[in-house]
Specification:
Blueprint: E1 7-12, E2 16-21, E3 25-31, E4 34-37, E5 42-46, H1 48-51, E6 61-64, E7 67-68, E8 71-72, H2 75-89, E9 98-103, H3 109-121, E10 126-131, H4 132-139, E11 150-155, E12 160-166, E13 169-176, H5 180-195, E14 197-198, H6 201-212, E15 219-226, E16 232-238, H7 239-245, H8 247-262, H9 266-274, E17 277-280, H10 289-297, E18 301-303, H11 310-317, H12 320-348
Parallel strand pairs: 1-9, 9-10, 11-17, 17-18
Antiparallel strand pairs: 1-2, 2-3, 4-5, 4-6, 7-8, 11-12, 12-13, 14-15, 15-16
Helix pairs in contact: 2-3, 4-11, 5-6, 8-10
Length: about 350
C-alpha cells in the first residue's frame, strides 16, 4: 500500500458513525442520519445537523436513518452519508483511502457485500471488514490472542453483539435485536401508556441517558404533548419506573448471553467465570443492565472505559493488519504471475 494513501477506520453504526484517520485519531463522531428533500432529492443535512431536524422538519424533508440493526437498510442513503463523512474526515488527495469497516458478527455475505459496495461507491480504494466483537474487545484493552476466553457484550444502537473470543477468533457469538434504539422505543411506549404523554425519539434517548446517571430515588422532568388535549405538557417520572419498564428488553440480552455460554467450550466458560464480562457500546450504561447480568450469572460485569468508542478504537488498532493483508495479496499475485509465465514458456516449447 502506498505510504501516500490514507488508512481510515469506520464504525458504521445504527445510531452514530465514528471515523478514525491514521496518525490523526478520531476525527468524526456524528449521528447516522441524513436529511433529504423528497421533491428534489437534494441533501439538506447530514449527521448532527440532520438529527436536529428529526420531528421538526416540514413535510417535504425526510430524515433517514440508513442503518438498521447494524446493517444497511437504505443503500443509496448510506452511500451518500459515507461520501459526506469521508470528504469531511479526509482531505482531498490523489490517492483514495483504504477503509476498514466493522460489521455485526452475524452479518450475511449479502450484507457484507452491500457495505463494501457502498464504501467503494463513496470513494474508497479498497475496503476491508472486521467483526464488531473483535473490534470491541481490542478497544476495551483485551488481548484477543490470549488462549484464555473473554466475553464481550457490545450494546450498540440497533443490535447487541455477544461473543466469546479466544486466540484471535470468535468461538461463539449471537446477535440480539435488543439495543439502544429498542430501549428508546420501550421508554416512549411506557410514558405514553402510563402518563398519556407523547415524546419523540430524541427525548426518549435523553431520558435513557439521564436515568443511567441518577439513583433510583431520583425523578426527572419530561416534556411532551398530552394525548387527552393535544397541548404541551410535562410530568415528573421516577427513575425506578424507567428501570422497571426496561427490564423485559434487558432480559433479551441476558437470554442472549445465556445462549452463548451454553455453546461455549467448558474450559473457556471457566475462564469467563474467573475473569469478567466486558460491556461495550453506547448503551452499556443503560440502567439495570450491568446489575441484571451479574445477578443472573453470578459473574462480574465491567463497563469498559469510554464504551461508545471501544469499537472504533479497536478498528483503528486493526488498521495495522491492512499492510500485512496487502503484502500477502501482492505476494499471492506475484506467485500467480510467475506460475502463468512458467506455464506460457512450457506451452511455447
Amino acid at each position: 500500500m502506498s505510504r501516500f494513501r490514507r488508512s481510515v477506520a469506520i464504525d458504521l453504526g445504527t445510531a452514530s458513525v465514528l471515523v478514525f484517520v491514521n496518525n490523526k485519531g478520531i476525527v468524526l463522531n456524528e449521528p447516522s442520519v441524513i436529511a433529504v428533500d423528497v421533491l428534489s432529492d437534494e441533501i439538506l443535512a447530514v449527521g448532527s445537523d440532520a438529527k436536529k431536524l428529526i420531528g421538526r422538519a416540514s413535510g417535504n424533508v425526510a430524515c433517514i436513518t440508513p442503518m438498521k440493526a447494524g446493517v444497511i437498510a437504505d443503500f443509496k442513503a448510506t452511500e451518500r452519508m459515507l461520501d459526506y463523512f469521508l470528504k469531511k474526515s479526509v482531505k482531498k488527495s490523489l490517492f483514495k483511502p483504504d477503509l476498514l469497516i466493522c460489521v455485526p458478527a452475524r452479518s450475511t455475505q449479502v450484507e457484507k457485500r452491500a457495505v463494501i459496495q457502498a464504501a467503494e461507491n463513496a470513494g474508497a480504494h479498497r475496503t476491508y471488514l472486521i467483526e464488531e466483537p473483535l473490534s470491541a474487545a481490542l478497544g476495551a484493552g483485551i488481548d484477543i490472542t490470549d488462549p484464555k476466553g473473554s466475553m464481550v457484550v457490545d450494546i450498540g444502537g440497533g443490535t447487541c453483539d455477544i461473543a466469546v473470543i479466544s486466540m484471535g477468533q470468535i468461538i461463539a457469538s449471537r446477535s440480539v435485536d435488543a439495543a439502544g434504539r429498542s430501549f428508546d422505543r420501550i421508554i416512549k411506549d411506557f410514558i405514553r401508556s402510563r402518563y398519556g404523554l407523547l415524546i419523540g425519539d430524541t427525548s426518549a434517548e435523553s431520558i435513557k441517558e439521564q436515568a443511567s446517571y441518577l439513583t433510583l430515588d431520583d425523578s426527572f422532568e419530561v416534556k411532551g404533548r398530552s394525548i387527552t388535549n393535544a397541548l404541551p405538557a410535562k410530568v415528573y417520572i421516577p427513575v425506578s419506573e424507567i428501570k422497571d419498564c426496561l427490564r423485559g428488553e434487558i432480559d433479551k440480552i441476558v437470554e442472549g448471553v445465556k445462549k452463548v455460554l451454553e455453546v461455549t467450550p467448558p474450559e473457556l466458560a471457566s475462564d469467563i467465570f474467573d475473569r469478567e464480562i466486558i460491556l461495550t457500546g453506547g448503551a452499556a450504561f443503560t440502567i439495570g443492565l450491568k446489575d441484571r447480568i451479574e445477578e443472573k450469572f453470578q459473574i462480574r460485569a465491567k463497563i469498559a472505559d469510554s464504551p461508545q468508542e471501544c469499537v472504533i478504537k479497536g478498528t483503528a488498532k486493526a488498521l495495522n493488519w491492512i499492510d500485512s493483508l496487502d503484502e500477502n495479496r501482492n505476494e499471492a499475485i506475484k506467485a500467480k504471475q510467475e506460475e502463468n509465465e512458467a506455464f506460457e514458456k512450457l506451452r511455447r516449447r
